[in-house]
Each structure stands twice: as structure tokens, then as C-alpha cells.
Amino acid sequence: MAKGFLPSPRGTNFEAKTTPVVVWSCIMASTGGLMFGYDVGISGGVTSMGGFLKKFYPGVYKRTQQTGLESDYYSNYCKYNNQWLQLFTSSLYLAALVATFFASYTTRKLGRRYSMLIAGIFFIVGVILNAGALDLAMLIVGRIALGCGVGFANQAVPLYLSEMAPTRIRGALNILFQLMVTFGILFANLVNYQTSKIEGGWGWRISLGLAGIPALLLTVGSLLVFDTPNSLIERGKLEEGKIVLKKIRGIEYVEPEFRELVEASRIAREVEHPFTHLLMTKNRPQLIIAVSLQIFQQFTGINAIMFYAPILFESLGFECNVSLYSAVITGGVNVLATIVSICVVDKIGRRKLLLEAGCQMFVAQIVIALVLRAKLSDNTNNLDNRSSILLIIMICIFVSAFAWSWGPLGYLIPSETFPLETRSAGQGVTVCMNMLFTFIIAQSFLSMLCAFKYGIFLFFSGWVVVMTIFTWFFVPETKNVPIEETTDKVWKQQWLCMICHEEMQDLTVYGV
Asked: What residue intervals traverse the membrane (predicted)?
């Protein structure tokens, strides 16, 4: 077992080992990401299957079977443009947005572990409704149940991972959640590729039903793991918290870290209304940055590709089976690049990964737009083999950049940003904003593709420029800082926080 010390700016070293208990707990908890990823990946493949479209969206199915007609209605970019089809994907994220408000309360009052259990139960209910759907209403209700599970899982799991992990590998263990998301997407793409070949057009039921595997893993896993010491101490279970702290650190003497957790808990209990406290001047920079990261994460355009990869590839001129195969390739790149992030995030740091990826994503999207402008018109497809291969390579370059930066760090940075007294509330707002803008992209992408055509990639590349500039000026580095000490060591040194601190001092001087 690896052994190390966690440096404290207060002059205390928190001894810790990377124990099997920590690794096991984090792997089980991160299966929530596996379920989330499967939901993300499965929707695009299912909505491109003829049997699924014929049963629930016959108008769209008719358009996909007719080609070469000189009408925007039948254009390469517009044939999947249907608000109800987009609702199948986006309803999950709208439900997750609402569920987040309840998840924030349960995560704080019942603990991270029970919130993950609730997520697992919602996932199981949603899987049953989706796999057995008889009409569109049943299908959408199932997606809503899955969305509630996503809301609870995305609220609890990143907090759980950050609080369980030793500081020196907190980034790597937290990114396990995003790694599981990428595995879920890849698994979904592989399943869709196989089930699309089933004669009779009912393969989509298998695709939706196999989501039960990660749902059961999360449900059972949440019953087998400990809650975090931070959560136990926060809820007044001091002795139990100390016992768990000893188990996850692999040592008997944990007094320095335990005292710090108790002190953080004492401060947290003094805050009666954490959401109100979150809006105070001293917490405003953390909130602004956490919320901005969620908005920017969605406006990279990644979920437009992940949600609708097979549909997107078909719209770009690929055959159905080829489009599903291409989605598998991008899913594999997504997994490999996330593993890269796990290996380097605690060495290189968060900021450098975000900045490098911004440049890489910008170049890839510009090249994609130029190729489409030259080779793909509304009603004809002039893509040759070289152009097709170049498109796939550029999409893979874009996906890899996102997977080792904005994907995992969009969850990691907020989870280690807020102090304990506002951590659940801050994570709740973070997940809420993520789900809101995920819903917006999911509900509008096919319509935007129809309206903007190749320009959709120019639209997202413009946002990549904005978010890269934002990172340069606003996002501080949090690697190798104990989670309960980020406020003192990082945020009090950040220039925006220093301005807010001066504002607070001025208000105090004037008696406000």
C-alpha cells in the first residue's frame, strides 16, 4: 500500500495510506457514473434505430427512409429534427434538475451513502418502465425516473469520492466517476451496435433494459460501503466518523485530521440556511466559478456528440451501421483519454489541463466545420473516404481533449471548492446548473443542427474560446490541497476572492 503525507498549511501533516477500503468504496460509489454514462450513450443509438422510431416516432421514421428530396424537411441536417424525439433524451435531465433540490437535502441530512441508494432505486424503476414501454407516455415517465436517479447520483457521488480520498490522489479518485461515465457510454454504444442487428426491430428494448446492470451495481454497492467521515461528523456521529476515518486512512492516529473535520463540522452547524450562506459575498467567487464550469462544460458541444453520436454521424453522411460503429470508436477514445486524466490530474494540475484542452477542442471543431462546408450540402453527400476519416479523427481529437479536462474537472473542481458548511448546497447548485444546460442542449441540438448546419461546430468553438479565457483569469489551482483547507490556502489567495473580502471589510466599516 502506498504511504504518504498530506501537507497542511496549518503546519500539520495528515498521515494516510491508499487503503483497499478507500479504493473499494470509491469504485462502488462511482458506478453511479456508469449508470449516467449508459443513459447518455444509449439514447443516441436507440433513437437512430428503425424499430424504435417506427413505434414511437413514425413521422421521423418516414423521413429517414426517403433521401434525395429537395426540401429542408428531408435535408441531411434536418431529418431527425423533432421536438418529441429530443424530449426522449432531454426529459431525463429536466427531471435530474428538479431532483437535485431534494438530493441536496438528503445528502446533507441522511448522508452521501443513502443518497446513492435512493439514486439506485430510481434507476431500477426507470429501467423497468423504459424496457417495457408500450407508448410514448410510458417511455417519457421512465426517462423521468432515470433523471431523478441522475440528480441524486450526481449530487452525492462526487462529494463522496472527494471526501473519502487522501488528498494526494483526490483528483484521480474523483475522476473515477467520470471514467465510469465514459465506460457507460462505450458500453451503451457497443450494445446499440449489436442490438441494431436484431431482426424484428425490438433490439431497442434490450438496449434500454441492460441499463439495469449498472443500476443494480449502484444500489447494492451503496449498501456495502461506509459513509464519509465528513458526513458522519457533520451529522453528529463523532465516534463512528473517527472509526471510519481510521479505516480509510489505514492508521490508528488520525487526531489532527479528525480535529479539523470536527472544527469544520462545528462551523457548518452554525449555518442554518446553507443556500442563503452560499450567496454571501465571501462565497460568491466559488459559486460563480462552479456554476460557470457547468455552463461551459455543456457549451463545448460534447453532449451533443455523446447524446446523438449515431444520429450525428448519419446526418454527416455515414450509413446506419457505420454511424453506430463510429460512435463506438469515439466512446473508446473517451475512455482512454479519461484514464490519461486520472494519471496526470494530480501531477499536472487542473488549470493546465483545461487550458490545453481548450486549444485542442477549438482546432478540431474548426476543421470539422470546414470539411462539412466543403463536402456536405443539404440534400447531397460528397464525402469521400478521406473526408470521412478526417471527420472521425477530428471528432476523436475533440472528444479526447474533453475527456481529460472539462469532462472530469467539471465535477472535480466544484466538489473540492466549497467549505463543509456550504458543500452540499454548492454541489446542489452545481448539479442543478449542469442538468439545466444539459437539458437545453439535449432539447435543442437537433433543431440547431437543422438551422446552423455545419455552423453548429463554429458556434461551439466560439464558446470554447470564451471558456479558455475564463479559465486563464478565474480558475485557481487546487491540486494537493486538503479538502477542508482549500478556503484558506486557495480561495483567500484568489484575486476575485480578495476583492470580495475587501468589499466585506468596507461593509463592516460602514456598519452594514
From this structure: 21-38, 84-102, 114-134, 140-161, 173-191, 203-226, 287-311, 323-345, 388-413, 425-446, 452-475
Q: Which of 427, 410, 24 is nearest to 217 (CA)?
A: 24
pTM to 2 decimal places? 0.75
Phi, psi of 17 (to 5 degrees): -115, 155
Query: Burial letters for 461-497: b for 16+ Cβ neighbours within 10 Å, e otherwise?
Result: bebbeebbebbeeebbebbbbbbbbbbebbbeebebb
pLDDT tens digit sequence for 447-486: 888 888 888 889 999 999 999 999 998 888 877 776 666 6
Cβ 290 vs Cβ 486: under 8 Å: no
Q: Which residues of 194-210 are buried (b: 16+ CB within 10 A; e: fewer)?
A: ebbeeeeeebbbebbbb
Determine the pLDDT at residue 486. Answer: 67
385 is written with which cell numbers?
473516404
Grid cell listed for 182: 465514459
Q: Containing H/E element for 211?
A: none
110 class by beta-carbon count within 10 Å (0-12 exposed, 13-18 middle, 19+ buried)? middle
Q: Which of 185, 178, 253, 210 is nearest to 26 (CA)?
A: 178
- Please check whether residue 279 is in contact with residue 433, taking contact to mean a CB–CB distance below 8 angstroms: no
Q: Which residues contact 81 (CB under 8 A, 6 or more apart)?
A: 446, 447, 449, 450
pLDDT tens digits, 397-427:
999 999 889 988 887 888 777 776 777 778 7
